[in-house]
Structures are given as C-alpha cells and as structure tokens.
Automatic annotation (TrEMBL), chain A:
The keyword Iron applies. InterPro entries: 3Fe4S_ferredoxin (IPR001080), Fe-S_cluster_ET (IPR051269). GO terms for molecular function: 3 iron, 4 sulfur cluster binding; electron transfer activity; iron ion binding. Ferredoxins are iron-sulfur proteins that transfer electrons in a wide variety of metabolic reactions. Keywords: 3Fe-4S, Electron transport, Iron, Iron-sulfur, Metal-binding, Transport. It comes from Kutzneria buriramensis. Gene3D superfamilies: 3.30.70.20. Its cofactor is [3Fe-4S] cluster. This is Ferredoxin.
TrEMBL record, chain B:
Belongs to the cytochrome P450 family. PROSITE patterns: CYTOCHROME_P450. The keyword Cell cycle does not apply. It comes from the Bacteria. The keyword Oxidoreductase applies. It comes from Kutzneria buriramensis. Keywords: Heme, Iron, Metal-binding, Monooxygenase, Oxidoreductase. InterPro entries: Cyt_P450, Cyt_P450_B, Cyt_P450_CS, Cyt_P450_sf. This is Cytochrome P450 RapN. GO terms for molecular function: heme binding; iron ion binding; monooxygenase activity; oxidoreductase activity, acting on paired donors, with incorporation or reduction of molecular oxygen.
Amino acid sequence: MADGRWNVAIDSGTCIGSGVCAGTSPKYFKLDGGYGTPVADEVDADDEVVTAAESCPMEAILVREVGTDKVIAPLD
Amino acid sequence: MTTVDRGACPYPFSEAQGLELDPEYGRLRDNGELARVRMPYGGEAWMATSYEDVKTVLGDPRFSRAATLGADVPRMMPLIQNETNLLTMDPPDHSRLRKLVAKAFTMRRIEMLRPRAQEVVDGLLDDIEAQGPPADLVEGLALPLPITMICELLGVPYEDRDKFRAWSDAALAFNAFTLEEIQAGRDGLREYLAGLVAQRREQPTDDLLGVLVQARDEEDRLSEAELVQFGVTLLVAGHETTANQTGNFLFTLLSTPHLLRDLRENPELLNPAIEEMLRMTPLGTAAGFPRIATEDVVLSGTLVRAGEAVMTQLASANRDGGVFDHGDEIDFHRENNPHIAFGHGVHHCLGAQLARLELQVAVGSVLNRFPDLRFAVPVEEVPFKTGRLIRGLRALPVTW
C-alpha cells in the first residue's frame, strides 16, 4: 500500500474530457466544464489515484510525491 | 417533474437507412423529452437523446452496466448478455481490467504506431492501384487495415481473419443471423481466444494477449473467463468499428462533393474532418447498450427510478444544438467539437486513439493516392449491410 502525500495535477491543454478519471475515481476526480480536474491538489497516497492516472488515454494526469517531486504516475 | 404516462413508443423508430439518423431523435431531444420506448427484447426503457442526458447516463456511477449482466433487460440484441467483459463491468472491477492494457492505448503509444499504419495502408493502396479500377475499398482497405493493426497488437494470426471475421459479424447481429448463428459466433470467438491463451502458456509472448496471460498466471489480477473475454472484446472492438467507419467516412466524402472538395483543397483539415465525421456518422444502427439506474435519478425533468433501464443515443447527443452550432451539418471548419462518438466516462473507447490514427491514415492516404476517386456505381447502388448492431458498407466500389 502506498503512503505519504501526493500532488495531483491535470494538464488542461492535454485533457480531452473523456471522463475516464471521474468515472474511475469520483473520490479524487471530477469534471468541470467538461474537463477533468482533481477534487484536491494534494491527497493522502492511495492506489486508486494511480489507477485513474494510468487509465487516462492522454496521460494528462500527473501524480507526484509531495516534497521529493518523484513521479508516481504515469510510469512507463 | 413529469408524471404523466405518455405511453411507450415501439423501438427502433424505423429501420436504419444508410447513414441517416431517424429525425425522431432530434425531435425528442429538441423537445427536452426523455423518451419512453419499448425495446425489441426485455420490455420498456427510457431513452436519452440530449448531450447532457447522454453524458450523465454514461458518466454517472448511478448508472450501471454490470446490473444488465445475465438479466432479461430491455435491449436490441436477442440474446441475454451473460458473459462478463469490459463492456459489462462497473468500477472497481472494470478499472482493474482496463488498466492492465490502458498503457498500450494511450495517445503517446498509439502515435508510435503511425509509421506502421502508414506502411500497411501504402501496401494496400499499391495492390489496389496495381490491380486497376474498379476496386472495392471495403475488402481492399477498410477491413485489412484495422485487422492487421489489432492482430499485431494482440498477437492474433492475420491468416485466421476469415474465421474470426465471420464469428464477429454474427456475434454483433440482431436479426441478420439466427439465434443459433449468433451463439455460434460468440462460442467460436471464445474458443478461438482460449486456444491462443493456451498457446501462450506453452510459449510466452510479449504481445497484449501475452501481457494478459502473464497478469493472470503470475499476478492473479484477472480470472480465466475475464482473460478470454478480454481477448474477444479487444479483437472484435478492435476491427469492427474502425473498419465500418472507414467505409462510412469515404462514402460520406464521395457522396458529398462540397465536403470532398473542401478536404482536397485544405489537406490540413484532415484531422478536424475525421473528428467531424466521427461526430456526425451514427455508428450504431440503434441506441447502444442499456444501463440500469441503481438509485432514483432525474433526467430532463423525468424521474428514472432505481432498477429502470436507460438507453443512450450518442449520434443524437452529437447533434445537440445547445452544444454544436448548426449541429445537423457537417462542417470541417468547426472550431469546438467535444463530440462523444467514443462514449464518455469509464467506458470511453479504449481504442479511441488507435481508431483515430487508422481513420486519419486511411482517409488521408486514399485521397492523396487517387485524386480523381469516385463511386464505380450510382450512389444508391452502394450496398449497406442490414440487421447488425453497427452500420457499414457491404462493399465500396470505386474507380479513378
């Protein structure tokens, strides 16, 4: 299980509004004006955030560890 | 809130004609009505036709696909869907499966396949040109391109295409085949994929099917039935849709001279033109897969009660005048085009980026190669298939 704090960001220029993130994880993502947006910019680590980020067809969701900026998702 | 019983309308409203959308959808949408329809099987359902309602039904977790599994729900297809696949799952099960392959279908990864798609198309067009006019662009281009691409991604032998094409065609029928033939198509696909899975246990591969076998055998991330049905879904969805839309888009261009001229004069409009044809071409002959409300939800002022079925009509949502100016017209110069041809929410088409790539390369290349491309028969003689879930041409006879 993941721990620590994560920063969640969506690149609004890349997002196509597919709705995959908000459907996969309504706890962490919502649609605003048709485009994906994080419910909170900083969250407790949770694998569900990674699942949503990895399901984005545009790889528009960037999840990083707070403090270290280490990329949690997407990874190759 | 509406409580008056308006009576259910028999559905479909009419038999699909070519690429025409029955005007009844637009009337319902523009009246702000949630329609009540009697489906060919399973009884009555609601039908969403507006952009907002369709997006809500597709995106809101209060509407379930899993609740339709194994149930005699209102639907177009004669058989009850009793095999779990990606399209009949809700989160979190759906997310668990989808993420196993999602990386292979991202924009970035699919873009890396563009040179290969171009090479395949160039080879197909070489053959067509060498043979001389007339040619059938369905057999010569629209089918072999997506079949080649999905075969290579999944690891399915291209030589088997006649076999799985026939099964797939029957599996997606509602009255073009008998119930026995439809069931035989589904069984054939399942047994075929089970065989390919077994091969990979003997000889591991690094194709997508190999990745899924590994996820099952080494990490226990999906069941055996899920694994086999995942393969079936990827193979069928990976070619039926794009193959038919390629033919449909070329039909639209060849039968609408001002659109063809616009695209030929402005080749930089290729990608927007593909998006616009995605918006305007109804892929389904009728409204898509049913969803079941898991709690009471109000749509367009009408109460949908928990347990009731809702159908969605994407093609009608894509013409909603509240979202798209002159929504019933094809306009390659449209600036804002948030169409939902690939669906919305968790079931947003996994292969959307691959479909876009294939459509762009196929349509762009065929126009480049044949500057004088035209139908080889009168337009009304270009044959459409009937009795199937998906619209498409039986053949596209062209000359140049």
